[in-house]
Amino acid sequence: MFKPDVYRQRRNRLVKNTGKGLVLLPGNEDASMNYRANTYHFRQDSTFLYFFGIDQQGLAGLIDLDENVHMLFGDDAGIDDIIWMGPRPSIRSLGEKAGTDKTMPYKELGKILKQAVDSKREVHYLPPYREERVLRLENWLGIHHSEVQQKASRALIKAVVSQRSVKSDEEIQQIEKAVDIACEMHTTAMKMAMPGVYEREIAGRVEGISLSHGNPVSFPVILSVQGQTLHNHYHGNVLKKGQIMVTDAGSETSMRYSSDITRSVPVGGKFLQHQKDVYEIVLAALQSSIDSIKPGAPYRDIHLRSAGIIARGLTDMGLMKGDPEEAVHQGAHALFFPHGLGHMLGLDAHDMEDLGEDNVGYDDEIKRSEQFGLAFLRLGRRLQKGFVLTSEPGIYFIPALIDKWRDEGKFKDFIDYGKVEPWKNFGGIRIEDDILVTADGCRVLGRPIPKTVAEIESTMQQPVSS
Ligand code: GLY
Ligand code: MN
Ligand code: MN
Fold it and tell me: Which mutation among 350, 429, 434 tests ligand 1's pocket best, with the greatest number of atoms within 8 A of CB?
């Protein structure tokens, strides 16, 4: 945990920005896999972590906005808990670590909330992403479960997003730590990407590296020679020469800050010329974003600039035709680049996505587009110093999408479907970095992870360390 004062100050700021009433910030509970006692790895709620820092089940935070009183609810471990799970710090000592004013048994929370509802005080809460939380909110606040989502507090969402979007120095250090673990995960994956190896052997090793640093991966490892499937979690293919392996993986730190990195490498260690051609376009699109990221720049425009580089590159290769700028304007490039350039990163890999993508990535000035491709951009608004985000351009050959658009005669003026046909077994290439917006530009976070063709080929010649 950070020092108690960090959490206190974060909550004080929240008190200033949220209005009147109470702010309810419950932590997460264990979630069962296949029977009650067999639980998934515990993951604390990120907003609870941000404001209270305690990575433990069975807790809830409550802030009285009118009195500026900060409360932590939870129960000390009983003897059964101690026998099965070991001793735990007392609630009182946890409250001290989080800089709260009061700690109380969990059952008191329901009573206090009932009193607040009865006396018509506003209870601000965030949109729940677990059904169990929906039921708790229904019980605590007397709101029918079908209305719990829509009654989440706009004021609280706004205040939390504004605070969590700008990372402090200690948060940036945490994210860099997570990127450094990802560096080890990715360089190991590169060295293992040899013909005859199963994806699962590499994926297991990649996840194991994260675990060996004491923490889980920040999202399920994406690793595949079928990289055209953007979030491919199937790891059963055996690697063959001539394929590209896409690895999209990151780690969490012990304080639950994330990294989210992608590298694409040629099986066997040497790019073929046509793979290199595509790779260099994606790398140029990434570099253009790094050159453009700075405070005040709308990320939507940076996305469009990268899309322009992709469209121009594919036009030079003969796969697209016509004016690349017009192709991007109309959305034709999205056949090959059907996702957004990036998203916020922090305590979540897709930071604060539970608070609503548009609340995090858009604002009154910049609204989400409805155009295929651009519509999937999670972050469009102007950047600010202290934002941490990903840039992750890619080029993919998705056979089903190519066939669909060709059969519909879509964008015939911009896409040479005849030339695209032989590329349908290419797979995909994505390259993703984690980037901090600085006062006058940006900084790619963490130790450099091999990224150019030469760096990747040289890394892939090295033996895998045991
Ligand atoms: N790892 C998922 C993403 O890059 O957004
Ligand atoms: Mn990723
Ligand atoms: Mn990402």
Answer: 350
pLDDT tens digits for 4-27? 999 999 999 999 999 999 999 999
Ligand 1 environment, Cβ below 6 A:
219, 248, 260, 343, 349, 392, 432
Angle at 212 between CA 211 and CA 217, to 5 degrees: 25
Domains along the sequence of the chain with CATH: 4-165 (3.40.350.10), 169-460 (3.90.230.10)
- b/e map of 101-110 (b: 16 or more CB within 10 Å)? eebbeeeebe
| Residue 125 amino acid letter | Y
- Location of structure tokens 């600085």: 438
Sequence-separated (6 or more) residues with CB below 8 Å from residue 137 = 125, 128, 143, 145, 148
- Closest by CA position to 338, among listed 371, 313, 383: 371
Nearest ligand, measured from the Cα of 219: 1
Q: How far apart are CA 260 and CA 45, in angstroms?
A: 19
Q: In sequence order, which residues have a C-beta less than 8 Å from that of residue 64 and are 6 or more positions away? A: 22, 70, 71
d(Cα 7, Cα 51) in Å, to the nearest integer?
5
- Contact in structure between 317 and 352 (CB atoms under 8 Å): no
Transcribe 390-436 into DSSP letters. EE--EEE--HHHHHHHHHHTTTTTTB-HHHHGGGTT--EEE-BEEEE
Residue 144 corresponds to which tokens in the numbers above? 């029918």
CB-side exposure of 177: number of CA atoms within 13 Å?
Answer: 17
* Spatial contact of 369 and 334, defined as CB atoms under 8 Å apart: no
Given this model, what pLDDT does residue 231 score?
92
From the CA of 344, how far away is ligand 3's center (Å)?
A: 8
Is residue 117 classed exposed, middle or buried when 0-12, 13-18 and 19+ CB atoms within 10 A define those classes? middle
Report helix, strand or coil for 439. Answer: coil
* Alpha helices in 242-298, H assignment, sequence order: 273-292
Per-residue pLDDT reduced to its tens digit, 196-246: 999 999 999 999 999 999 999 999 999 999 999 999 899 999 999 999 999
CA atoms of 259 and 389, how far apart (whole Å): 10
| Residue appearing with tokens 């990715």 | 186
Type of residue at 37: A
Residue 217 Cα to ligand 1 middle (Å):
12
Is the pLDDT score of 335 beyond 90? yes
Contacts of 9 (CB under 8 A, 6+ apart): none
Q: Are 22 and 62 in contact (CB under 8 A)?
A: yes
Tell me the chain's radius of gyration from C-alpha atoms.
24
